[in-house]
Amino acid sequence: MKYLDEFYDREICGSLAAQIIKESTGKRWTFMEVCGTHTMSIFRNGIKGLLPENIKLVSGPGCPVCVTPNAQIDRTVEFARLDKTCVVTFGDMMKVPGSSSSLEQERAQGFDVRVVYSVSDALKIAEQNPDKRVVFLGIGFETTVPTVAASLKDAKSKNLKNYFVLSCHKLIPPAIKAILDSGEVKIDGFLLPGHVSTIIGRKTYGFIAEDYGISCAVAGFEPVDILQAILCLVKQKTPQVENCYKRAVKEDGNPVAKDLIDEVFEVSDSEWRGLGVIPDSGLRIREGFSEFDAEKNILVEITLNSQLSTLNSQCICGSILRGINTPLDCSLFGKGCTPESPVGPCMVSSEGTCAAWYKYSSQN
Amino acid sequence: MNTVTNKISIGHGSGGKLTHNLIKNLFLEKFRNPILESLTDSAILNINGTRLAFTTDSHVIKPIFFPGGNIGKLAVNGTVNDLAVMGAKPLYISCSYVIEEGFDYQSLERITQSISQSAQDAEVCVVTGDTKVVEKGKGDKIFINTSGIGLCNYSLPKDIEIGDKVLINGSIGDHEIAILSAREELGLNLKIESDCAPLADLISQVLKSSEKIKFMRDPTRGGLATTLNEIVEEKDFGILLEERDILIREEVKGICSLLGFDPLYLANEGKVVIVVAREDADQVIETMHSHLLGRDARIIGEVVDSPKGMVCLKTQVGGRRIVDMLVGTQVPRIC
Asked: Which CATH number does the domain housing residue B228 bear?
């Protein structure tokens, strides 16, 4: 762990910032950090304060909690209300409000909702509670999916009958493509997500530079990583995908993990909050594993609560996720919507843009 | 409070903003009296000219045995430290158990032995107590409440002024990370121990070394960030922290980086935050360095004119950001 300090070195960061200022002068730049972990690191380390005014960082759709649509949260809430059913989730999803309730509210009402740190714990809960249906809320991008795939293979080999996954998994490259195709935001470069890239590899992003002519840098998450990647972006003469996170990311990613995903999941269209349905941007459970597919095996009806729907209509999480708006543009930000009482998921997630602005910037 | 369900959530017990709001909006409203209103770690009672500090604390923790301590040691030190930070010499404590049916007798014996030892270390006597047993499944193994009284020879807090220094006696986050690593589900194998310790002796040395100690508090639940926010809340000054002066162990840093936690919000059980006049800061640090529990003491920030009512942090890389109170609980990031 000793290496961490070097990536927070004030002198190195100062020198990188000075080079960025020198190389970027004379032009206005908008860079999108795709990943929520980048957003958090940028705020937590006060990185915006080191950058010149002509560089603007906008947050992208890379927060798994934020892009999960209402319908899936409503569905999970309904699962939680069923008899002899336990919903298992990562902690970040607990507070996300759906149309009528959140998992946290359901737990407070006495329904069986449990928080785990890893999907293998969900599997354990299923094994230990054979009289209950255990539904794992599968959210996350390419980074998280291999572990969920492994849990499904494990469940199959153990012949478990009470373990289910609601697959809300999403893929990052199609979302980037959708943002570019919409043409709503002028983006001069992407800080590409380090964690996702460890799985899918640098090459996958080639289309952004080749087809759209936009510079890219695969970036790690410490301050030196982020500044280094921004420097790469301002220095690029010809758009290309540079790997600034070589200690973790390979050209082709992790083939074992990719094969595992492919064995259990298949690509499907998927709804993203704020971005709508994006072709080939989600993962559904393959036929061979359909016995574990919560959506197919546990049927629930989803109802809408009109009052909360009205509130949600004022929430601009969608356009924040597309990089069009910042939280300051939202009439609810810091007033009707705070981390204690969030309206939109971007205020809930520890990786959400609104949560980052609220927690770390002086404008709240 | 969650207005939709009117139910208490886990976040209300986190020591952060939700706990704070619950205390202010409900408990303070219903119990209102001048002693409680000061919302200090202990109540200060004037009885026939004698100043007594009085406090209480309930302890629920999972797992009950963890590296560096157990629920018993925690129960004693939590209460003793709440007395000590008010400048009191802790004297007597109570000890009440709520035990779940089926709890292992040997574990109870181990915890009780630990309470006895911790009381001895903190120079307090356990003088009264209570035992209740609840049905299996109606409690989580064991809960312990301790209350304590101490004799107050110092008058704290005093008025904080611009330029005062903010000190702490060592690294932050050790306790919470030790607890996390002891939980099986994370599968972590770390060599980190809880900092759980009685602070009364260190604090008495500190109080002897300077008459200009303005404020002390142990940054337990909600961490350093929450304690500092409580200091500046509704005041006409702020606090500026220097991130690189805050000691965080490598293991703690590593886990925080992995899970996306901010160490400023992690609980401590053997730390004290001290606000002292600028001119006395160095001598207080020197005093702390000569004490076993203050070897890593350091100045981590100062009281500033603006922004008022806020805690700001000069980050390690030279940027600047706000340090807000913890809202709810910290949860690991997903990706």
From this structure: 3.90.650.10
pLDDT tens-digit readout, B171-210: 999 999 999 888 866 677 778 999 999 999 999 999 999 9
Looking at the structure, tell me whether residues B173 and B264 fall in a common domain: yes
> Which residue from A223, A199, A196 is spatially nearest to A40, judged by alpha carbons?
A223
Q: A 204-223 residues with CB below 8 A of B?
A: 221-223
How many structural domains comprise chain B?
A: 2
Domain extent listing, chain A: 7-302, 306-360
B9 touches chain A (CB under 8 A): yes
Average pLDDT over residues B271-291: 98
Fold of the CATH domain A7-302: Rossmann fold (3.40.50)
* CA-to-CA dists, residue A154 to A131, A133, A186, angstroms: 19, 16, 45
State yes or no: ipTM above 0.85.
no
Three-class DSSP category at A126 = helix
Q: Is A351 close to B5, i.e. CB distance below 8 A?
A: no
pLDDT in tens, B226-250: 999 999 998 999 999 999 999 999 8
Question: Does B24 fall in a domain?
Answer: no
Give the contacts of B320 (CB within 8 A, at least 6 positions apart).
Answer: A46, A49, B312, B313, B314
Q: Looking at residue A274, what is its pLDDT?
A: 83
Compute the nearest-CA separation of B320 from chain A (Å). 5
Tokens of A46: 């006060």
Q: Are B185 and A118 in contact, with CB atoms under 8 Å apart?
A: yes
**Same structural domain for residues B59 and B113?**
yes
Q: What is the DSSP letter of A159?
A: T
Bigger pLDDT: B39 vs A81:
A81
C-alpha angle B61-B62-B65 in degrees, rounded to nearest 5: 90
In-domain check, residue B234: yes
Does residue B30 form part of some domain? no
Check residue B3 and give its pLDDT.
45
Q: Could you say which residues from 269 to 288 on chain A have a Cβ atom under 8 Å away from some Cβ of chain B?
A: none
Residues B254 and B222 in one domain: yes
Put simply, the chain A residues between 36 and 95 with a CB less than 8 A from any chain B CB are: 36-37, 40, 43-50, 62, 64-65, 90-92, 94-95
